[in-house]
Give the backbone structure.
Amino acid sequence: MLTAGQCSTARAFLKWRLPELAQVSMVSISTINAFELENLQPICANLAALQRAFAGAGIEFIGPYGVCFGANTVQKPPSI
């Protein structure tokens, strides 16, 4: 399961701001922000959407803490 630290680290790897991740994942900016600040545990559907967004950009999660670029080509986020 995606952790708050993995979410913020993956976003940093991709150089995505909150609005970019929100657009790609279809999860609200406020939900992502609260999750990364560890003020909220998102519902399973939102966590899955965040993981899919990162996976689509080539991010892989290693165990409960790790984040790395996978074999997939990293995609640029849509322009906002």
Remarks:
- The helical segments are 4-14, 18-25, 29-36, 44-56.
- The chain has a mean pLDDT of 87.
- The domain at 4-69 is CATH 1.10.260.40 (434 Repressor (Amino-terminal Domain)).
